[in-house]
Amino acid sequence: MCLTLLWDGSGSLGYAQKEQEIPEQIYTELDYVLSFFDSEVEFDPAKVSGLIDFVRSTPAGTSISLEKRRNAEGAFHAFDINGRISDILGYAYNPEVPGYVTMPSSLQRQEWVTPDTETELRNLMRDADSINSIRFFRGRENETITPDLHTGGYYTYDQDRLVVTLPGVTGPVLISATIQPDHSDVGKRGCVAGDDKDWNYLYLPEPGLNKTGLGWVKSYMYYASSVVVYVTDSSTDTIHAGSFKWLYAGWSKINMVKSHHILKGMKRFALDFKNVLESPNLPEVQEIVDKYQELVKMDEQELRHMVEPYLQSLRESGDVEKCSGSFMTKVSSGEYLQQMSSQEIIRILLLEYLKTYVVEIPQESLGSLPSKSLDSFSHS
Prior knowledge:
Elements: H1 24-34, H2 49-57, E1 63-69, E2 72-82, H3 85-92, E3 107-112, H4 117-125, E4 135-145, E5 153-154, E6 156-166, E7 173-179, E8 188-192, E9 201-207, E10 220-233, E11 238-251, E12 254-255, H5 259-278, H6 285-296, H7 300-317, H8 327-333, H9 335-339, H10 342-355
Antiparallel strand pairs: 1-2, 2-11, 3-4, 4-6, 5-8, 6-7, 7-10, 8-9, 10-11, 11-12
Helix pairs in contact: 1-2, 6-10, 7-10
């Protein structure tokens, strides 16, 4: 889930070719996909053929405002990935790989809350590049997103997810859909510490938004739904992706989200998703799993000791000073370090490890841990 939530003073779309519209047939087929959260009938690929063709034929970079869904604003964005469906499933839908590995600027935490998730997702991953039948998975996840770029707000919520793989004309097709069944927890104060591309985020447990004049706001994500379609072109090892997203969020049941806000979050997601999956130095899945498990098994005090230089680096770089409110005080006093959960520390350490492989991130931007803190995570 990607979110750029609240009003930023811009009233124009600023991105879409306003004369370009989504054909009505595509909305019908999107409704069909989203209806499968409550359906027990067999998935019919003929009822999504137009949707698949639309995504396959839409040029990367195309962005279109969508019709409202349940009073939620919507946007569509197309992008390409050099790779295979097995790469997406292996890294982004692998129950052993934290979701933030492929969505570092969008996702802070994700946990499956349905049983048998690991077995079912592994079934999707099996022979993913040569599937000849329809496979699908339905489950519920609880996730927390990264702070919004404009307000610093971050949110935790449950969402239902549907993942379908099926054979296509030019190669395998992956469809991933989500619906948020209830409103999120109240928005809390977070901060993007420095440049968003460096993936450095701070979190406080206090309700409110980290923006002047909006600190009092009790905001919520009231409803969200999405459908992302990945269509393989096996002849070029290219995946054409199309993301459709709707969001209703704000406060006092007033939707403060516009289509251009949603698009900004979608582009935020797509950029990192591509950069990670297309990195020529990206470690094999099992190596990432091993590093993650190594961190999970560490003592909590050892984890705090390892992440302390990271917080010191953010403070000395001036990035924490850009965060309003009490962030600087809490980081400088050591209070922030003590309130960090093991899960949050592990995320930071695993992403610092990943940054050393993702070539799109300059080495001088790593910000982070001195070499001694990463000794046990050196390249294999």
